[in-house]
Amino acid sequence: MSPKAKNSTVKTLNKIIEWSLYILLFSIPVSKTLIEICATLAIICWVIKRILLGREGLDGLRTDINLPIAVFYFISLLSIFWSTHPNISASAFVRKLSEYVILYFIVAEMACEKRIVRNLIAILAASAFLVCIDGLYQKAIGIDFIRGYSMFNLKRVTSCFKFPNGLSAWLLMVFFPFASLAFLYTTKRSSLTGDHKNHLLPKAINYILVALILYTLFFTYTRGAFISFAAGLTLFLFLISGKRFRVVFFSLAAVIILLILFLPKELKEPIGLSNIVSYGTSGKHRLRMWATAWRMFADRPFTGQGLNTFMANYEAFRGPHEEGIWYAHNCYLQMAAEIGVFGLLSFLWMIIKTAVVSIKSWRRINDEFLRFAYLGLFCGIMSFLFHSGMETSLYSLKLVVLFYFSLGLLMGIKKVGMQNGKV
Predict the structure, then answer these.
(1) How far apart are CA 393 and CA 409, in angstroms?
(2) Region label for 31, one of left (φ > 0), alpha (ψ between -120 and 50) or beta (otherwise)
(3) Is the pLDDT of residue 279 over 70?
């Protein structure tokens, strides 16, 4: 193939990949079928492009977390060979984990222009608006207009998700980028053209989205999401504030925690604190699932039972009076049970590396829009991961795709935002 024909083909493939990512991001909460179609199309085009380019353009694949991702991926591959259900593990490795990892690299590579980053943020805003309006419609009418789902237990909003927990995890991820842009992005200069523009409308849209997301999140009545939101907000405020503010904030937080723990019950009830630390039926059920996950992990702590075999092994390890087969509702316990302690440590290494790089980098991103989008996205990812310690987020197609997509976008924003500087 001539250089001219190759360049033309690569340009066409890039455009297909770009639009596949746009549609995929918008459709994450709406349609699993669209997710799979768009992801498959993007991966096929990306593989063809990589074959055509050969060694050329490999710099686009270099990110700060390549090594921990590679180790995590390799340990997951090895788990197939000692899995209790090799067929399940092999299928999950090829059809799930490989797809997610490749998607991460595609997004990190494609988010190489401010234009694409801004388009992705705008599409995420449109998706968030649709999901929130659908949730409010469901609350008013009793059924959502996208998937036809009823409210969970007749009172908890789920929007186009099956369960309120899934909706709340998605909202946690998308809230912080728009909160960051709404409250911190104040420039009057376009980061794309350099022309002076009135940013009142985009800023108003961000404020509206923040209000809609918070309102919808509240009506999921998901305790784990509220705790995770508080954790994400704490991280956000910690990163943007000065030392004096941090001292005051954490002092107040400590006082509130002490009140929740030690205030007499008769004083807790009037201000709504009496049930915050009680487990209830849901909490006790989670403890039983965690105990099952721990027994599964303790049985094979180094190798694990095998990638994606938790459900297949659940019955053999559940308690004597427990019924049904469940996810662990703690992604990290489930990961340890499936791929062992080294697999879990490699994933935690990936998270810690992401956190360290992001905290060091965000203030040094040159473009103001990209800087605050990056900060918000990082806090959203961390809030989502905190929530994953109480839920099944990393084992839900919609949410795990959102996670790897967001992680790739985070690395892409850093790269394009620091083209004139180094960390």
Answers:
(1) 19
(2) beta
(3) no
